[in-house]
Amino acid sequence: xxxxxxxxxxxxxxxxxxxxxxxxxxxxxxxxxxxxxxxxxxxxxxxxxxxxxxxxxxxxxxxxxxxxxxxxxxxxxxxxxxxxxxxxxxxxxxxxxxxxxxxxxxxxxxxxxxxxxxxxxxxxxxxxxxxxxxxxxxxxxxxxxxxxxxxxxxxxxxxxxxxxxxxxxxxxxxxxxxxxxxxxxxxxxxxxxxxxxxxxxxxxxxxxxxxxxxxxxxxxxxxxxxxxxxxxxxxxxxxxxxxxxxxxxxxxxxxxxxxxxxxxxxxxxxxxxxxxxxxxxxxxxxxxxxxxxxxxxxxxxxxxxxxxxxxxxxxxxxxxxxxxxxxxxxxxxxxxxxxxxxxxxxxxxxxxxxxxxxxxxxxxxxxxxxxxxxxxxxxxxxxxxxxxxxxxxxxxxxxx
Length: 400
What we know:
Elements: H1 6-11, H2 24-59, H3 65-89, H4 95-130, H5 137-158, E1 163-171, E2 182-186, H6 197-210, E3 214-218, H7 229-233, E4 245-248, H8 259-267, E5 271-272, E6 276-280, E7 283-287, H9 290-294, H10 296-305, E8 314-317, H11 324-329, E9 334-337, H12 348-356, E10 362-366, E11 369-373, E12 391-399
Parallel strand pairs: 1-12, 2-3, 3-4, 4-5, 7-8, 8-9, 9-11
Antiparallel strand pairs: 2-12, 6-7, 10-11
Helix pairs in contact: 2-3, 2-4, 3-4, 4-5
C-alpha cells in the first residue's frame, strides 16, 4: 500500500528528482579524497593491530611457536581486512562480499575493545608492581581481554535491538489538528551490506505497530555503498501512516550522485522534501538535503525562500544537528535530525559528545529553537552499540 498522502501532494508541487551527472573533475577530486581517507584509515588500523599484537605476545611470553606463527599470519590479514572489504563493498553486492564486509566490520568493533584491554593491561601491571603485588602478567591480560570480548558480544546484541524513545514536544500556537499527533523520527538505517532488506522490513513493521501519524526520515537511509537501492527502499510501500513519510538525504547518500536514492525512495511512496516547505494541516514542514545544509549561505537562502511564518509552528527535517543559529534565525520551532549515532560506543561516543555537546542526543533548546537528535535506528561500520541504543523516536505534539 502506498503511503503517499493526498494533502501533502496538493499543498506543494513536487520538485524534479533528476540531477545533473558529476563532471569528470568533480569525480576525480572525489576519488582523490577517497584514497586519502583509505590511506589514513589503513595507517590507523596498522598501528592499532601492532599495539594489540605486541601487548598480547609480551603478556604471554610462553606462547608455542605454532601459535606465534599463526598470530603473525592472522594479524597482518586482519589489519587490511576492513579496508579491503570496504573497497569491495563499493563495487560488489553479493553474499560473499556482504559476509566478508560484516565480519571485517565486527572485527573492527572488537579491536576497539581489545585495545582498551591492552591499555588497561599495562596500567594494571604497572600498578601491581608499584604496590609490590605478585600478579601474573598473563592472568591480567586474560581477564581484561575476556571482559573486552564480553562487552563486544553485548554490543553486537544491543545494536540489533530497536528501542522506542517517546518524547513530548510542546510548541506554541499548535494547530488543533496537531494536538496529540505523533511523528515517528527514523534516521540512519544505513541500508547496505550489513543492514539489508530484512532489517528495513522489521523497521517498517515496527512503525506500523506504533501507528504514528507521519514518519520523518532524517537521512542516511542508505550506507552509500553499491546495492539494489530500489529493493532496499521497497519496504516503505507497506507503511500505513495516515500522513505518509517525508525524507531528506544524509551525508552517506551524498557520497555519490544522490539521484538514484531519491528516485528509489520516491518510487516506494515516500515524499522527498527537496529543499522545500510544505504545509501539513497547519504545520510547516521544511526538508533540506545534507549537501545544502553544509553550506551556511545555501541553507540560509533555502530557509528564506521557504517564507516561514514564525507565528506558526514549524519543523525542520535535516540530517545533522548543526547550523542551529541559521534555523533559529529563520523562525523554525523544531529541528529534527540524526547523524551522530551517539558515537555508537567508546571512544567514538566521547568524541561525538565533545563535537555536538548537548545536541548529540535527545531534546534540547537552542535559544527559541527546539532541537531533537536521534541516535538512529541502524549502525555504521561495526554493527555494535555500547552506551547507546538503536531507536525509533516517537514525538508527540502538545500545546506549549
